[in-house]
Description:
The chain is of the alpha/beta class and 139 residues long. Helix content is 40%, strand content 22%. The protein has a four-stranded mixed sheet. Strands 2-3-4 form a three-stranded mixed sheet. 24% of the residues are buried.
Amino acid sequence: MTTAKDIMHPGAQWIPAHETLDRAAQLMRNLNVGALPVADENERLCGIITDRDIVVGCVAMGHDPARTTCGEMCKGTPRWVESGADVGAVLEEMQGHQIRRLPVIEDKRLVGMISEADLAQHLSDEQLKAFCESVYAPS
């Protein structure tokens, strides 16, 4: 059985909820990623911040990314998957919530992220087609 841990990108980094969006953007640039999991003071996942969130939700709204925190931008219930979950559970979570990135948790700690690129490397063409149709379908 292929698990989330088998297909994830290991070594994902999170950013504390109290950090500002400009710091998040710098970290994204340095890591060459488009999203960062956001953690509370107990290092527990409380959301995800994306480059699009920073641009559309902060900059385009006239807010200062140096004064807006990641925690302020996080909305909704964060989605994640256990490292031992099978690929079917990963797809169900991502398709069911129309998300493109999924944190992988092990022993209540972030151990990796699954992105579309990870799926493209590990799914059959049929699975990938179904994923794209459900995630990119209009809500």
